[in-house]
Amino acid sequence: MGFYDDRVVPHLVHVACGMSALTPLRERTCAPLSGRMLEVGFGSGLNVGLYPDTVTEVAAVEPSDVGWRMAADRVAGSAVPIERSGLDGQELPFDDDSFDAALSTFTLCTIPDLGAALAEIRRVLRPGGTLAFLEHGLAPDEKVRTWQRRLEPIQKRIAGGCHLTRDVRAELTTAGFALGTVDSFYQPGVPKPHGALSLGTAQPA
């Protein structure tokens, strides 16, 4: 990583994804989780404190040392044991069927090889395990999609490779997940090209 991506982007992501308006959405996303959990794109730990009591331990995958340092106080104060257990969501250092659940919030937009990462998450989830996600991506309206395509090159440069046009539902289905309930909506107070959200669950098919 260069200086900007390594040192600046984690702070930008913390501010953009740490808005208080997102806390209820994060709580909804975390609600179905239980057992041993994998969190891909742990970042600065913005989901810590929102995990339900049914979660017993968390394996945190986070490539940024800066992000992990920013999460230190949250990790130390967590009621659930959290261990940094990997650096790359595209190559997870875990055995097959290792986890009861997985969590991804505002992460799938940035992973360079999303197909590889989803295949890895599917591999390490036990049969019947749940992937819970809160992601932004391709908007349902063509006018908004047009703006997303225009803005995406800039977005990728300033936000660490973040894509605006990834179709979360389609990517999950292609990767072999069966979608559960998925709620798609525009986040209030955010420009629609950046605020087209999907919140839901999926299971290995």
TrEMBL record:
Stretches assigned to the Methyltransferase type domain: 38-133
GO MF annotation terms: S-adenosylmethionine-dependent methyltransferase activity
Origin: domain of life: Bacteria
Protein known as: Methyltransferase type 11 domain-containing protein
